[in-house]
Amino acid sequence: MPSQLVFNLASGSVSCGFTPVAARELQARLNEIVQILKVKTAETSSGGKPKPHKPIEYQYTGDVFLEIFCNPNIWANVFVAKVLITLRDDRIRLSSEAELTRIIEDVDRFVEQTD
Q: What letter does residue 52 receive in the DSSP assignment?
């Protein structure tokens, strides 16, 4: 049975039914973004030009459809990076930009609570 995953946004929050398995998959995708941004930061700080990376997407279909999208090429590092969150069902659609680090914290908290 899904528990409620709460995403804290810049002005408010949104929650949706989510499973622990899906949360671990989302954690892996978010960690992938972090690793890409760390490599990009290292390449830039060593005077090199960072190589382009493909955007990272995560999609979940349960009670609602959730999509998280990040283009790591437009962010300088992990601490300024943002993701686009889209949450929708047949009655409503919400799209919002959120800080990557905040979303990571929200997902980590959910995983800790459901383990």
A: P
